[in-house]
Design goal:
30% of the residues lie in helices and 27% in strands. By secondary structure, it is an alpha/beta fold. Strands 1, 2, 3, 4, 5, 6 and 7 form a seven-stranded mixed β-sheet that branches. Strand 6 and strand 7 form a beta hairpin. The radius of gyration is 23 Å and the shape is elongated.
């Protein structure tokens, strides 16, 4: 009898933790918004460069997927402070978001996106420029804070209930389709994002809930509040702006030579 009571109590505690975490992350029940990458405004004056560009998805060289499961029983252990739930995430198609940036810039006549080399292998020579690169890291870590048996009072006092961090590192290169051995341009992008969840913490919109769902293996396609391309606009916009301007300048210098 006591074993059954313990199991039901544990299930109830787990449910409370999950519901509280969802409320905190989504801003106390507010509906989520689409987090699709929004390119920088064009600002282009005059005609675009007469170039046809193919953006091919970055080669994934990141460490790989995988995760560390959290221990639900830890919340009942006195002095148990925190545990890491998931890590080593990489799902983002940064190349697709970059293609949207280059297309919206109106600096180039044509910008096409291809998810892999196979889709463009027979026609890549019809493009003037190939833009691709390598994804070195896209890591996500979610940490839960339990505070032992005093978890609820601690959370109500405003202490953190969870924290999320994400680090990404990728390199973009461009070369002429007829000169694949000579890089015309290269640019490296890194960003770090972090957020602490708590009762009194500012709940800015993030794609962390979507990342957690993907890592857990959930199909989020039927949940519009989790609609994201995992390219944080606020972090990538300045990086992509510098990239597209640098690429344009490199192409102008190359044409002048």
């Amino acid at each position: 009898m006591s074993a059954h009571v313990g199991i039901h109590r544990q299930k109830g505690l787990t449910a409370v933790i999950l519901v509280l975490g969802l409320v905190l992350v989504t801003g106390c029940g507010g509906g989520g918004e689409k987090r699709i990458y929004q390119p920088n405004p064009s600002g282009q004056v005059g005609q675009p460069m007469p170039l046809k560009i193919a953006v091919i998805e970055l080669e994934d060289r990141s460490p790989g997927t995988g995760f560390t499961n959290w221990n639900t029983f830890g919340a009942l252990t006195p002095g148990y402070l925190y545990w890491t739930e998931f890590q080593k995430y990489h799902q983002t198609h940064f190349g697709k978001c970059l293609a949207a940036e280059l297309k919206e810039s109106h600096l180039f006549e044509v910008v096409d996106y291809h998810p892999d080399w196979e889709r463009v292998s027979y026609g890549f020579r019809s493009y003037d420029l190939i833009v691709t690169g390598r994804l070195h890291q896209d890591t996500f870590v979610h940490t839960m804070y339990a505070y032992g048996l005093a978890c609820s009072p601690c959370w109500l006092l405003g202490l953190p209930s969870a924290s999320n961090t994400r680090e990404a590192d990728f390199e973009v290169t461009a070369f002429k389709s007829l000169e694949p051995d000579r890089e015309t341009f290269t640019h490296r992008i890194k960003f770090h994002d972090s957020k602490i969840d708590g009762l009194f913490t500012s709940h800015r919109k993030t794609d962390f809930p979507s990342i957690r769902g993907v890592v857990q293996g959930f199909d989020l396609s039927s949940y519009p509040e989790f609609d994201t391309d995992f390219c944080p606009t606020e972090l990538l916009r300045p990086n992509f702006l510098a990239l597209r301007n640098g690429l344009a300048e490199a192409l102008k210098r190359d044409a002048a030579e």
